[in-house]
Input
Amino acid sequence: MHRPTTLARQTAAALLAAAGLMPLAPRAQGPAIFQEADLVLGQKLLAEHRCAECHIRKVGGNGSAIYRPAGRISTAGYLRGMVEQCNVELNLQLFPEEVTAIAAVLNRDHYRFK
Output
C-alpha cells in the first residue's frame, strides 16, 4: 500500500484550504457572529495591542475585573461592539474581521456566550 509523503500531505492540505474546504487557522465555535473568526489572529492582536495592560490600568489587579462587569456585556454582539469601541477610542485602525477575531478570543476565554 502506498503511503503519501509529508510533501504530498502538505500539498493536499494546501489545495483543500485554497478551495475553502479546510481552514488553515483555528476558527471560533459558539455564537454565529464568531463562526468565521480567526482565533490565532485574535490572540496575536490582543498581545500586539497590549489589551490586558490597558485593562489592568483601568480596573487594577490582573485586569480580569473588566470582564462581565455587572452584566454590562450580556450578548456576543455587545461584546463585539465593546471591542469596536476600544478600536475607535484608541484609534487602533483594526479591520472588522480583526475586531471580530479579538471578540471571539475574549468570548472563548472569558464570556462563553453560546
User: Anything to note?
Assistant: The chain has one domain: 25-111. Helices lie at 6-18, 39-48, 51-59, 76-89, 96-111. The mean pLDDT is 83.
